[in-house]
Amino acid sequence: MLLWVIAGTDQPFALSSAPRRRGCPGVTMRRLIWLLFLPGFLCQCDPPVEVPESLIAWTGACLSIPCHYQACVGTPIRTNKLIISSLAWYLNPVYDSEKKDFSGTILYKHNAAISPAFAGRVRFLGDLERDCSLQLSDLRASENGSYGLRLIISNPKRKQEEKKSMTRISVNVTASPPAPQIQAPGELRESIPAQAVCSIAYYCPDYPITLTWVSLGHGTPEPTTRMDSGRTQSSLTFTPTWQDHGTSLTCRLSPPAGTPSSESSVVLDVKYAPQGVQVKATPGETIREGDRLVLMCVTKGSNPPVSTYNWYKDSQWLHQGQRLEFEAKGDEHSGSYHCEATNEIRTVPSPALRIDVQYAPKDVRVELVTGSPIQEGTTVVLKCSCRAHPPVSSYTWYRNGQHIPEQTQQELRFDKIHPNQSGSHHCKPQNRVGMSESPAITVDIQYPPKEVRITLQNPQRIREGDVVTLNCLVGSSNPPVTKYMWYKDDSWYQETQERVLTFPATKERSGSYSCEAQNAIGSRQSPPVSVAVQCKLSPPGFPVEGLLEFSPQVG
User: Fold this and answer.
1) What is the end-to-end Cα distance of the chain in Å, rounded?
2) How far is 47 from 165, CA to CA, in rounded Å?
3) Chain centroid to CA 218: how far?
4) CATH assignment of 278-351, given 3.30.360.10, 2.60.40.10, 3.30.450.20, 1.10.3210.10?
5) Which segments within 110-247 are labelled E, that is strand?
6) Three-class SS state of 244
7) Across the chain, which distance is largest between two alpha carbons, in Å?
8) Is the domain covering 447-534 a CATH 3.40.190.170 domain?
9) C-alpha span between 555 and 553 (Å, rounded)
10) How confident is the model over 272-287, as pLDDT tens digits?
11) What is the β-pairing status of strands 374-375 and 445-456?
12) Is 514 exposed, middle or buried (0-12, 13-18, 19+ CB in 10 A)?
């Protein structure tokens, strides 16, 4: 606050020490008339000095008030300048309307001795030309308040005119060092350099302080510097990381040794992309088919919070949301999963997580590897095929419902298959998840007719004129017999579709008979049998003409 007293008036009026606007603020119309007679005197010298609005100090410290004259105030040699005829510093000045002047504790007065109460503690650091600074050492609590600079300025061209001013500075004297102020950017971003400034409205060369940055593991602090405005400040240039978010940045004020320190802290708000993005699987990465699988996309931190999660399986987009849940189905859900977490900074992918869905053998079947039809004596291979994860560890084979011992491989091999190995075959593959059973497959072994023989249905004595019936019997045949070839005395005799051969008994048809049974695989001939036809008996009194006898032969 600046108080002016203009010649011709006894009352002071105020002029703000804030930045000037156009015109002469605070001047009434009547007083403005006076100013019109003083070209440039008031407005060009408003205010006549530059001082800080306020300062901070504490008991035991020193107070340094920086003060500089405006360009309008100078030495008397420069005729265009105003000159100072009187200068005084006051503690808590009060205007006395009766005396029309200020009263209070005088700290320093130009051309006067310093008061014994302040002797040795007050130093005027300036002069009457450029500098009007004041320093007070070993501050007491009672020296808190308003400090005022009283100036009496005259115009060398109008010596009868003198102007009086009072410039005030607010000084806060505390019991201990106050906490410094920290100014940090409102928004910090990871990996982008930033600067924080720690300052205090205090500077005194006889009582130096230091400002030290603590609580941050990295950064480049600049040396503590004095500012022209009477402030001490230290700047810290650092590149924030995501780990700095939520941590405290502290600036410590350290006076000379033996006095307590003070400090201030700010909590850093660092904007950063999602960190430590990964996929968490419950109950685990390896599960069984039918289990419920829950995948969560988690982060170690994100500021601002994650706004979007996206899921991918084998690089194909799958789902949006932080949680992915499904009932596991074999090969359909096995694969590589990863998620992406996005906030306003950027999108960050997680490492891929392999999900392994295990299941018991499925789609089990028995295959005939060696082809069909199967003929007796050939090599036959059956194979038990399936899908299984993990792979099948053992196989069990069955024939007609009965376990085939010592057969634990995927293939069941018959080097020379025999008809008694025909029948229904199935397998049971097993892995550590479980066992499954295949449908049965019929192994049909084909072979030529076996155990072919002839039987004679006639009585032991065949007489001429009887009907001879021969049966060609087959023990077994696969496929069935398709035809029968009959031979008489080793010569082809007749072909039949049926196994029975009939003919009338005549003398000419006596002989050795055999049959040959044929199927698609081959044929087999029976041993021969003999057919003997006896002559027909003559009437009583007539001689017997002949006798046909039957006897089987083994050939």
Assistant:
1) 151
2) 9
3) 27
4) 2.60.40.10
5) 122-124, 134-136, 145-155, 158-174, 181-183, 188-189, 194-200, 210-214, 220-221, 225-226, 232-238
6) helix
7) 208
8) no
9) 6
10) 999 999 999 999 999 9
11) parallel
12) buried
Superfamily of segment(s) 181-268 = Immunoglobulins (2.60.40.10)
- Give φ, ψ of 128 to 5 degrees: -105, 15
Question: What is the domain class of 2-174 according to CATH?
Answer: mainly beta
CATH superfamily of 359-443: Immunoglobulins (2.60.40.10)
Cα–Cα distance for residue pair 193/238, rounded to 1 Å: 6
Structure tokens at 479: 């496929």
Ranges of each domain in the chain: 2-174, 181-268, 278-351, 359-443, 447-534
Q: Quote the CA–CA distance of 318 and 527 in Å, as a whole number.
A: 78
Tokens of 156: 């060398």
Separation of alpha carbons 287 and 360, rounded Å: 12
Question: Residues 61-90: pLDDT tens digits?
Answer: 999 999 998 876 654 434 456 788 889 999
Amino acid at 484: Y
Count of H-run helices and E-run strands, the chain:
2, 49
Common-topology check for domains 2-174 and 359-443: yes
Give the global pTM: 0.64
Alpha-carbon distance of 163 to 151, in angstroms, equals: 8
∠ CA 128-130-134, rounded to 5°: 75
Which of 329, 411, 406 lies closest to 362 in space, CA to CA? 329
Residue 515 tokens read as: 């049959």
DSSP 3-state assignment of 36? helix
